[in-house]
Specification:
Radius of gyration: 47 Å
Distance between the termini: 159 Å
Strand content: 5-15%
Number of helices: 14
Pfam families: VSG_B (PF13206)
Function: VSG forms a coat on the surface of the parasite. The trypanosome evades the immune response of the host by expressing a series of antigenically distinct VSGs from an estimated 1000 VSG genes.
Shape: elongated
Strand order of the largest sheet: 3-4-5
Number of domains: 1
Order of helices and strands: HEHHHHHHEHHEEEHHHHH
Subcellular location: Cell membrane
Membrane topology: Lipid-anchor; GPI-anchor
Helix content: 40-55%
Largest sheet: 3 strands, antiparallel
Keywords: Cell membrane, Glycoprotein, GPI-anchor, Lipoprotein, Membrane, Signal
Length: about 350
Amino acid sequence: MLLKIWMLIFVFLLGVSADINVKKEYNKEEYNRLCKVLKAAVGAWEEVRAKGNEDALKKALERTIFGTDEGRNLGELKNCVPKDYNDVVSKLQARFLWCGDWHQEGETPELKPSRWAGHSAPHDLVCLCTVGNNSWPLDETSTAITLCGEEKSALKAKKNEGWGTIIRPSGSAKEKEKIDATWDRVAKPCLEGDGRKGATLKDALNIFMEKLVPTPGNNHTNRYRLGENSSDGYPCSGNGQVCVMYYNDTKTTGHKYSMPWWTDLADALKTEEKKEEQKKYEEEKRKKNGKNQEKSKHQEQPQNNDEPLTAALKSANPDKQEGEKDNTQNISAPLATIEEASGTLLIPPCSWLLGAFLLI
């Protein structure tokens, strides 16, 4: 009995040890899904822009890519990290305000970041994939080997450095350096369009949204998380957690948009789908009406089949008809020939003389 107990303890400890030593790839699946949406959005935006369309879909795509529907330069976005992130050092250092906070009316300017959770897909990649305080989760205390598929050297993860919510002397944690590395290695490749559009964008968005974790709390029932996070009052702060917290009921002061970019994109795709269905319906209706008009036109034409047939017969037997005409004209010709040959007048007997003969 004692031996069995020791065996169970050994197996338990072995399992715990194995679990501790498991190397983890943080936020890899979340990153892949978000990146695919951004790639598809870039491809769709380039197509819509080439057509000159100015509709809800174009605006939603621009907000997904740039964070605004006013249109920006995609080449510039690929080559340069947006200047908004300079505020991380000069104005608002706390990562929680950029990636996890709920912004509402009445906030002081000091608490309003240039970008917020759900501002755009590239910004959400920055929140999801930049190393946190002390370069977590790529520090010595974590079993993680990659963050968003990148190793610590690529993301410039170093001890006592990183982007968190612990206030330090400005620039001492080199937050901007970590953000720049994330933009270059993670966000920039996702800004390359994949040449796909339409249904692919819709599918990519649906797959991305399946990864959103409902996270009600702090008086917010309509809240969703993307990425790793521990349970505390400061979600996605970078202190032991790297993620994005979305609020579908936020009202951001000083910004035109409050809802996450993916809500606008989902609505625009639904509208576009309805437009395509209506267009297809109108096209099928037009074709059907054209066929009905053609059928009605044929039915209204007079159907006189005898006249063509008679004309055909007449034209086919002209000699026969001419012969019948000649025979009618020459019925008395044989009688005249007999009279001429005998010299005797052939007169048919009278009917009264024949009757008298019969009475005798």
